[in-house]
Design a protein that fits this description.
This protein is α+β, with helices and mostly antiparallel strands. It is 34% helix and 17% strand. It has one domain. Strands 1-2-3 form a three-stranded antiparallel β-sheet. The termini are far apart. This is BnaAnng22090D protein.
């Protein structure tokens, strides 16, 4: 996923763009106001980044869910380690 804080492979900045009218052939299903993460240098030549905003957000949510699951597992392990009897004490 390319996040707005990242760069396009061409080195261009990723911006938030709102497509009010279909501008490119890939906009055939675009409703007015559809949001995109787009390279500031975007040309419809396949060399620049342009992703529907919803796809980027879905990928970000999936990544965050994985991180939360990993942290929950770590917390459970730490709780277990804190509450179990210490086998080395008499």
């Amino acid at each position: 996923m390319t996040h707005p804080d990242e760069e396009c492979p061409c080195g261009g900045t990723i911006i938030n763009e709102v497509s009010w009218d279909p501008k490119y052939p890939t906009d055939f299903d675009t409703l007015p106001g559809r949001k995109y993460f787009t390279c500031i240098n975007f040309e419809n030549d396949g060399f620049h980044f342009r992703q529907p905003w919803v796809f980027g957000v879905q990928e970000e949510v999936e990544m965050l869910r994985k991180r939360v699951d990993a942290m929950a597992a770590e917390i459970a392990e730490l709780k277990y380690n804190l509450t179990r009897p210490n086998p080395t004490t008499p």
